Amino acid sequence: MAVDPEIAKSVEAMSASTKSASTRSTRTASAKTRIWSVVPAAGIGSRMGLETPKQYAKLNDKTIIEHTLSRLFKHPLIEGVVVAISQQDSWWQTLSLSFDKPLFVVEGGKERFHSVLNGLIKLEGQISPDDWVLVHDAARPCVRLSDIDNLIGQLIDHPVGGILACAVCDTMKRSNNNNDIIETVERTNLWHALTPQMFRLGILKSALLNVLESGESVTDEACAVEFNNLVPQLVAGCRDNIKVTHYEDLSLAEYYLKKQAEGI
Q1: N or C: which end of the chain has fewer CB within 10 A?
Q2: Bridging pattern class, strands 62-63 and 58-59
Q3: Residues 200, 132: contact at Cβ < 8 Å?
Q4: Strand stretches in the chain, DSSP E
């Protein structure tokens, strides 16, 4: 798939702006603060139109989830990862995974927040309520270590936590059920939510339990925290941190991984 030259320029510009932040922000993490990651991976990714869940689609020589886990385990401040998979998942056991940090597997739930909650419950025996959890989409294999550095650096002393995000740059339209445009939405202060989303274990678990008790449904961790009247912070991240959702996203993710490997 041909990649828009403007996207390529954007990737190069973002890389230059984030390289200097990497070392600086990593040093800001307190030696007493522990950081783990939870990866919800119980979805089936029906929009991809594949025979396997999208996290097991191949990117070059590895599956998407293998790329994603490799990124997380490479970060020096992430002590370990909990992956939530479907009870019917028959693909996970076929992967050849080898990391020098702990990797736990828990059963996923019907919705994303159920899977995350199961991951947090698993972590209760590993870390304290005040320690940090980075929840990251299994289908975001292109997240940059420098973005994770920046996220941790900006939020390590924050009372609530926050998320990686990128500002909306397109004109936004709202439609009715017939796809008729009914409104042009002012894009100032609108952001695309990305992952990782970083919250303290205790705050996030309490927020998700309250959502579960209320019968509401949330699409990301920040939404659950907002539901509990807390205010997460937005941390600007790179636009190449895409979520592989549609089939054509595979070619784009391959391109981004290639450029990142070249140091661009």
Answers
A1: N
A2: antiparallel
A3: yes
A4: 35-41, 58-59, 62-63, 78-85, 103-107, 132-135, 161-167, 172-175, 181-185, 191-200, 233-236
Determine the Cα–Cα distance for residues 216 and 213; give it in Å rounded to an integer: 8
Q: Under the phi-then-psi rule, with left for phi > 0, alpha for psi from -120 to 50, and beta for the rest, what region is 59?
A: beta
Question: What's the pLDDT score for residue 45?
Answer: 63
Say which CATH class 5-261 falls into: alpha beta
Between helix 5-26 and helix 145-155 the angle, nearest 10°, is 50
Tens digit of each residue's pLDDT (9 = 90 or more) over 53-64 = 999 999 988 999
How many angstroms separate the Cα of 84 from the Cα of each of 119, 121, 155? 6, 11, 25
Distance CA 81, CA 73 (A): 8
Q: Helix or strand or coil: residue 83?
A: strand
Closest CA to 133 of 170, 186, 91, 82: 82
Paired strand residues for 38 = 82, 135
Q: Which amino acid is at 239?
A: R
If the chain, 264 residues long, is cut into consecutive pieces of 10 residues, what is the mean pLDDT of each piece? Answer: 47 45 47 90 75 90 96 97 95 94 96 96 95 98 98 97 96 96 95 98 98 94 97 98 94 96 85
Nearest to 95 by CA among 123, 141, 58: 58
pLDDT (tens digit per residue) in 112-156: 999 999 999 999 989 999 999 999 999 999 999 999 999 999 999
Question: Cα(197)–Cα(233) distance, rounded to whole angstroms?
Answer: 10
